[in-house]
Structure prediction request, 211 residues.
Amino acid sequence: MAQHELLMLAAAPVLVLGRPLAVWTWALSLNARNRARRIVAAHAWRRVWRAATRPLGGTLLQAIALLAWHVPAAFDAAAAHAGLHALQHASFFATALCFWWAMRVPAQRAADGGAVGIVCLFLTMLATGALGALLTFAPVAWYHAYAGVPLPWAASALEDQQVGGLVMWVPGGTVYVVGALVIARGLLARRAEVGVPQPRTIAGLDAEGLR
Prediction:
């Protein structure tokens, strides 16, 4: 769980903020860069990219990956097979990149999509928090991959699951709250820049306003 949280809540947003892809392409040969440019410019790719990196699309993709891999059968299969384990990590990382890229646009242009970004972050926090709470308070262990395996950080598979649920629930939820606050700050700053009039109370109205 700690690995998943680091991939989705640390590495992915930092990479999105750094925007390294344009620089990384210079490590490719000229022919490879040209092929990559043609792929990115293709209409089909642009449609997929727009759908995956819009707030609602990114939120949905990340939620599907998160919930699907925490189904007991899928989780146990990933723990038993190295290839599936790698696919699990890759899907978490890729969908998190899409999600945080989608959040980057509302953060930069808060007036255009700030409210949508805040709602998506709030819904993601609710979904991950609910899953973390279920893992924490479940009376039995959901996953059998660690049953009977000595764990240096937990006395049993159930305790290990509870620790994982807490990691998802508390630190994970905090990151989403911070992201929503950053977007809200940009939204308020944008409103102040354009001079949006503030609501006036009855006590603040003058005689002309009352007439």
In short: Confidence is low (pLDDT under 50) at residues 201-211.
